[in-house]
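Progress report, Aim 2. The chain analyzed during this reporting quarter is listed below.
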Amino acid sequence: MPAAITIEPAAGHAFGEFEVGKYTLSRTVGIRSAGVSTLVINSIGFAGADPGDFAMDTPTPCPHEMEATTSCSFPIYFAPTSVGPKSAVLEVDSNSFSGKVSIPVSGTGTPAVIPPPSAPRVSFVKKPKSRITTKKSKLKRLAVTFRGDQAGSTFSCRLDRGAPGVCRSPKIYKNLKPGRHTITIQASKDGRTGRMVSTSFKIVRLR
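Predicted structure tokens for the chain:
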């Protein structure tokens, strides 16, 4: 008796719309040796108009020989390479009396979503020690260096509770009084403002 095969779902899979360059969640295909003789599978693959837009994990997802009444299942994916409707068939070639059998697969590729650019970030290159001593009534000069992670960023610096102002590295502070101080810096670019970073220190006058 000749071998026989069934492939499910007979209606195939419609993946719907999906972004170009990405894989959809898998859909399952089942193959069954439906006759009384051993089913010999020669090949499983995509054919038709757009075979390159669909994929399997492996080109041999089922055993080469399948005894009568046994079955196997495997995932397939839609992976559009360009925008627009795509169609193909998943084709199985075997020794079945029906010859090659296939199911349709389809989907539509949509434009890749480009995420908005991130806000720039700033980090200290050199910041003050937590405790600074001076013999004067004021600390004459203090330099703080920093950098942003995006070229073309602008920076805003603030000392303690003062108003923020445009600055660049190194930021020089002069005549700082003894006591606790906090320097806060923020980076901006093209209307995007990153999170603030700060450093605190104490100026101690030596008697």
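The chain has a mean pLDDT of 95. The first strand starts at residue 5 and ends at 8. These observations will guide the mutagenesis work planned for the next reporting period.
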